[in-house]
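ESCALATION

Customer reports they have been waiting on this structure for their group meeting. Please prioritize. Original submission:
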Amino acid sequence: MIPWPAGAATGVGSMPGTDIGEALRIVLGELPDLPHLPELPGRGAGADMIGRGAAFLAELPVEIQPSGWRLTARPGRDLRRARDLLERDLDALEAAAEGYSGALKLQVVGPWTLAAGLELHSGHRVVSDHGATRELAQSLAEGLRAHLADVARRVPAATIVTQVDEPSIPAVLAGRVPTPSGYGTVRAVEASVVEQTLSDLLAVVPVGRRVVHCCAADIPITLLRGAGADAISLDASHPLSTDALGEAVEAGTSLWLGVVPGTDATISLDASREPVRTLWQELGFADEQLATSVVPTPACGLAGASPPYARRALSIVRDVGASLRDLQA
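Update from on-call: job pushed to the front of the queue and completed.
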């Protein structure tokens, strides 16, 4: 049983700007059925995807090097900043969502995207070392467990849905993660290993509330389902395997379809609704099933959009969701 109502819409995660209070007001106002905790990478280091993901790690400190985030021997100011930003966001969420009851979505970067983005002490990516990747995934799971408990305490009437962001999984599977020199790539990781590691993280989240987001063109739908995803979030503008999607819907997996661009563009309700209707016709399912099987979203995060466009994009996906609900009447 999905914890969000039929016809719900949501955002992928990131928003423009640096004011978490304003971002929360927009999200809670435009997405009343499935709001999310916004991420504001415009605030700089520590608010970016990898820096925020590293803030969840238990007993694995990180620091910023010229080449990016790197594991280090002891915590320093870079990690403190990342954790302070997260704490500030949770304080703002607690205040803005006081009395809220319903589905509430959180985002966390997944183990493979974090391993592809973080460096070892040597400068090589964590994903190049299977033992280090395993340790990273375990640390992330421990941190996520504590994070979910913290949010449940702060917003006690909410049903927490967790979105695991894994845009780098296709590159990990295909051996496309670059080495430090930039002239080579890290050896591909076996699909079974990728699936099991992701499954171990998803096991921290209650069944029915597990979403995996991947906006890459070659999203491995079957692997994500095998790892335990209850919902798969993807960019509907990419060519998609109707066979894999049809099997997912048949099995009860929810599809979160990105139907508006993540950066400023001309958008409308009709144009944004069309990809959903077209895909659904190709899959061959009844229109009455749409609102319970599909959640409209932006194609990716909105950090690169202007504030007016970001608000408009969220209002459009909300209206797309409402139009799907009307088909049930």
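Sent to customer with the following note: The chain is about 45% helix and 15% strand.
Escalation resolved.
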